[in-house]
From TrEMBL:
<protein>
    <submittedName>
        <fullName>Uncharacterized protein</fullName>
    </submittedName>
</protein>
<feature type="transmembrane region" description="Helical">
    <location>
        <begin position="158"/>
        <end position="176"/>
    </location>
</feature>
<dbReference type="Pfam" id="PF24124">
    <property type="entry name" value="YphA"/>
</dbReference>
<keyword id="KW-0812">Transmembrane</keyword>
<feature type="transmembrane region" description="Helical">
    <location>
        <begin position="46"/>
        <end position="64"/>
    </location>
</feature>
<feature type="transmembrane region" description="Helical">
    <location>
        <begin position="126"/>
        <end position="146"/>
    </location>
</feature>
<feature type="transmembrane region" description="Helical">
    <location>
        <begin position="76"/>
        <end position="93"/>
    </location>
</feature>
<keyword id="KW-0472">Membrane</keyword>
<dbReference type="InterPro" id="IPR014617">
    <property type="entry name" value="YphA_Bacsu"/>
</dbReference>
<feature type="transmembrane region" description="Helical">
    <location>
        <begin position="99"/>
        <end position="119"/>
    </location>
</feature>
<keyword id="KW-1133">Transmembrane helix</keyword>
Length: 188
């Protein structure tokens, strides 16, 4: 249920308050609407249950990865983030902390902290967060499939986690910019 609330909140925000090119706005709104509509539909490929938005998101991410040049540091950082995503999921399978706090929120928070400390630019942070989450989810599903456990790719919780993670990254970026402006004004 939280996924749908977050999706509609993002659509309203993008439609009324987001200041960007009209084509970018329309693309984001169409992607969100497709995500809402297609989330209920799943396909089974080689014993993996995959939602249609996960497939579309994977294609978009691979297009973004192909259009950008990554340094060795970025590749190593992404690999570390993917492995930490999978490792934290394994820890929360065995740990009872998920009875108190949602494991997706703890994993998302730790990934956000790692992304903020490794990248300076907002869009690089978002891209690293998305790639690490997407590849981590796929690697986790593969590892759990080896153990004969089912893990659907692209569930409601996954997209809620993605939306909240991007929103938190945006708030961190906004707060650091405003804080930096105040420090500059105080020195003058």
């Amino acid at each position: 249920m939280m996924f749908y609330w977050l999706s509609w909140f993002l659509i309203i925000y993008l439609f009324f308050f987001y200041r960007a090119k009209q084509s970018v706005k329309q693309l984001l709104i169409v992607c969100l609407l497709l995500n809402i509509i297609l989330l209920r539909y799943e396909v089974t490929i080689i014993q993996f249950t995959i939602s249609f938005p996960f497939i579309l998101g994977s294609l978009l991410l691979f297009l973004l990865i192909g259009s950008r040049s990554f340094s060795i540091k970025s590749g190593f950082t992404l690999w570390c983030l993917v492995l930490s995503y999978v490792g934290l999921h394994y820890i929360f399978i065995a740990s009872p902390i998920w009875l108190i706090v949602n494991s997706q929120l703890l994993i998302g928070g730790s990934l956000i902290i790692m992304v903020v400390f490794t990248n300076r630019e907002f869009w690089d942070q978002v891209l690293c967060f998305l790639i690490a989450s997407w590849l981590g989810e796929a690697l986790l599903a593969y590892n759990l499939q080896i153990l004969n456990w089912q893990h659907p790719l692209g569930s409601n919780f996954f997209y809620s986690y993605i939306y909240l993670g991007i929103a938190i990254l945006y708030l961190i970026n906004y707060a650091t910019k405003k804080g930096g402006q105040k420090l500059v004004r105080m020195n003058l």
